[in-house]
């Protein structure tokens, strides 16, 4: 980790130290209950984490969907493919999927959208898999439109993925306040559903060069979620160490600390050691980029040794094209020399059998 990155992360953690120390003072009983609208006490978060097996899984979108809208809109919701692909995940011992939502799919048909979420959760539960739902996202294409989604662009990573709410709404407080009914409705419907492991309120806020302009929406989505007070913990994962204001808010307001790291093991180890000083359970909600030396063979054992949840990017190659690297498009659509993400081919065979053997071993299969 570069000194600049290390300093930025240390500044975030210094903001947390007084709260962590206050809960660990000798003679004070740890808090395990939470009033509505409040951050979980550290003891409650750790008790929640201890109730679960080691969290292991992938970010999931079916191979037939190019983005969140194609996954969740009524015309393209594909339970047969979801069932089949989650079956492959179960077969290698994965117990958790991180799944992105989109407010435009809800706006078209709130009742139908929630029915499809329930159908997805039923399929996941059938395969002994819990779900982390993600509400908002600052990554990739700035604008989304309901209806038929574009075809993938040949050889380009995530060519059709869309931000939520996207530009300019994410920067406009007057506009994004209209998103509160969406968040409140979905959270209220599934607030006590044990098939939902956790709520990831905002993926990579500040990405796409938005930086601190995403902070108002981040603050608001936490406030909206706290007002519902679901049984499940709330989080938003840190991902860029130079976004100090965002990082500080995310870590200080997340019941469980989550983060993204696509770096090699030595860097990743340092990140874990620093984030553990917060005292809360730790889950890596994105890792595994082969060409960056973030692999199942060297990162997954590290995460298990440190009791850090492990959610890699990608399960099955498909329309997202995330087997191609972020910045290395292949214009002819040929097979990359090495896949960037994904575990399975579309026929269910592993991309690399040795990797699947590592995954199964780590998951006790």
UniProtKB/TrEMBL annotation:
Residues 156-314 form the Glycoside hydrolase family domain. Keywords: Glycosidase, Hydrolase, Signal. Residues 146-169 are annotated as: Disordered. Residues 1-22 form the signal peptide. Pfam families: Cellulase. InterPro entries: GH, Glyco_hydro_5. Belongs to the glycosyl hydrolase 5 (cellulase A) family. This is Cellulase family glycosylhydrolase.
């Amino acid at each position: 980790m570069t000194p600049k990155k290390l300093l930025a992360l240390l500044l975030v953690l210094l903001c947390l130290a007084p709260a962590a120390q206050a809960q660990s003072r000798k003679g004070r009983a740890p808090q395990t209950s939470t009033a509505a609208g409040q951050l979980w006490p550290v003891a409650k978060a750790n008790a929640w984490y201890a109730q679960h097996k080691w969290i292991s899984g992938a970010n999931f979108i079916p191979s037939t969907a190019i983005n969140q809208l194609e996954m969740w809109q009524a015309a393209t919701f594909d339970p047969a493919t979801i069932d089949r692909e989650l079956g492959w995940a179960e077969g290698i011992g994965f117990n958790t999927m991180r799944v992105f939502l989109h407010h435009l799919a809800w706006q078209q048909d709130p009742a139908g959208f929630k029915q499809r979420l329930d159908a997805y959760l039923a399929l996941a539960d059938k395969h002994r898999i819990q779900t982390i739902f993600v509400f908002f996202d600052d990554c990739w294409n700035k604008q989304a439109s309901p209806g038929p989604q574009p075809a993938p662009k040949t050889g380009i990573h995530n060519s059709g993925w869309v931000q939520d709410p996207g530009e300019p709404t994410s920067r406009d407080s007057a506009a994004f306040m209209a998103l509160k009914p969406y968040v409140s409705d979905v959270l209220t419907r599934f607030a006590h559903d044990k098939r939902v492991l956790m709520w990831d309120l905002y993926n990579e806020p500040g990405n796409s060069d938005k930086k601190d302009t995403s902070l108002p929406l981040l603050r608001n989505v936490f406030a909206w979620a706290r007002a519902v007070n679901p049984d499940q913990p709330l989080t938003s994962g840190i991902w860029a160490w130079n976004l100090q204001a965002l990082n500080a808010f995310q870590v200080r307001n997340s019941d469980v600390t989550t983060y993204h790291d696509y770096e090699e093991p030595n860097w990743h180890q340092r990140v874990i050691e620093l984030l553990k000083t917060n005292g809360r359970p730790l889950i890596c909600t994105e890792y595994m980029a082969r060409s960056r030396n973030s692999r199942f063979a060297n990162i997954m054992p590290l995460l298990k040794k440190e009791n850090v949840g492990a959610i890699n990017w990608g399960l099955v190659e498909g329309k997202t094209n995330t087997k191609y690297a972020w910045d290395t498009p292949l214009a002819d659509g040929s097979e990359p020399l090495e896949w960037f993400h994904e575990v399975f081919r579309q026929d269910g065979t592993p991309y690399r059998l040795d990797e699947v053997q590592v995954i199964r071993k780590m998951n006790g299969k």
